[in-house]
Amino acid sequence: KQEVTQIPAALSVPEGENLVLNCSFTDSAIYNLQWFRQDPGKGLTSLLLIQSSQREQTSGRLNASLDKSSGRSTLYIAASQPGDSATYLCAVTNTGFQKLVFGTGTRLLVSP
Amino acid sequence: DADVTQTPRNRITKTGKRIMLECSQTKGHDRMYWYRQDPGLGLRLIYYSFDVKDINKGEISDGYSVSRQAQAKFSLSLESAIPNQTALYFCATSVAANTGELFFGEGSRLTVL
C-alpha cells in the first residue's frame, strides 16, 4: 500500500528566504507526482505535476524534483513571500490505478 | 464560474439524517472523484468514477454511496450521517489521458451533530 509522508509538518520562515519542502513515498511504481497548494477553507490548486519519466518541473519561483528510485520529491520555493503562506500537499498516482494518494501536508507561514 | 462546483459549501446536520453532496464540472473530464479531508489524516479517497457507467470504491467507502448522473455530475450521499463523518469533502476531476492532473472543487464542509 502506497504511503506518502511530508516533512516538516509545519514551517515558519521570514520573507525572502529560499525553502525546501519534502515528500517521500514508499512504492516507487508511480505514474506521476503532483504538488498542490491549499489555502484555509479552500480547495486544492495544482502547482506542479511531474511525470514518472521526468526529473523536475518549474513554474515561476517553484521547482519540484523527483527521484523515483529513492521515493522522494522536493518542492523548492525561491524568495518566499507572505502570499506563499498555505498548506502544501504532495500526492502520487500509482501505475495502473490512476488515483492519487496524498501526504498530510506541510503548513507554511512566511512572515513579512 | 468555477470549473468544478460543489454544493452545498457548508452543511450542518444531525445524526441519522440523509445528506447529498453534489458536484458538477464544466471541464469535460471523464474521471471524477470524491475525497474527504480530516486534520492530520490528509485526503482519503471515498469513491471514483472513470465514466458514467463506471463506479469504484476508494479506501473509505463504508457509509457512503455515489451516483454518476451524467459525465458532468457526480454526487455523494450519506444515507444515515454519523458524527465521525464530519469532515471537509472534495470533488475532483481528471482527464483519461496521460497526465493524470487533478482539478479540485472548493470543498463542502459537513458537520454532523
Tell me about this structure.
The complex is a heterodimer of chains A (112) and B (113). By secondary structure, chain A is mainly beta. Chain A has strands spanning 4-7, 10-14, 19-25, 30-38, 44-51, 56-59, 62-67, 72-77, 86-94, 100-102, 106-111. In chain A, strands 2, 4, 5, 9, 10 and 11 form a 6-stranded mixed beta sheet that branches. A 5-stranded antiparallel beta sheet of chain A has the order 1-3-8-7-6, with no helix packed on it. In chain A, strand 4 and strand 5 (44-51) form a beta hairpin. The mean pLDDT of chain A is 93. Chain B is built from no helices and 11 strands. Chain B has strands at residues 4-7, 10-13, 19-25, 31-38, 42-51, 54-57, 65-70, 73-78, 87-94, 103-104, 108-112. In chain B, strands 2, 4, 5, 6, 9, 10 and 11 form a 7-stranded mixed beta sheet that branches. In chain B, strands 1-3-8-7 form a 4-stranded antiparallel beta sheet, with no helix packed on it. In chain B, a hairpin with a 2-residue loop joins strand 7 (65-70) and strand 8 (73-78). Chain B is globular, with a radius of gyration of 13 Å. At the A-B interface, strand 4, strand 5, strand 9 and strand 10 of A face strand 4, strand 5, strand 9 and strand 10 of B.
Q: How much strand content do the residues of chain A show?
A: over 45%
Rg result of chain B: 13 Å
Which pair of chains forms the biggest interface, and how many residues does each contribute?
A-B, 24 and 27 residues
Bin the helical content of chain A. Answer: under 10%
Globally, the shape of chain B reads globular
Please count the helical segments of chain A.
Answer: 0
Q: Mean of residue pLDDT of chain A?
A: 93
Q: Which regions of chain A are unreliable across 5 or more consecutive residues at pLDDT < 50?
A: none
Distance between the termini of chain B: 32 Å
State the helicity of chain B in percent bands.
under 10%
State the major sheet of chain B. Answer: 7 strands, mixed
SSE pattern of chain B:
EEEEEEEEEEE
**What would you call the structural class of chain A?**
mainly beta
Form type of chain A: globular
Number of helices of chain B: 0
Listing every helix as H and every strand as E from the N terminus to the C terminus, the arrangement of chain A reads EEEEEEEEEEE
- How many E-type strands of chain A? 11
Structural class of chain B: mainly beta
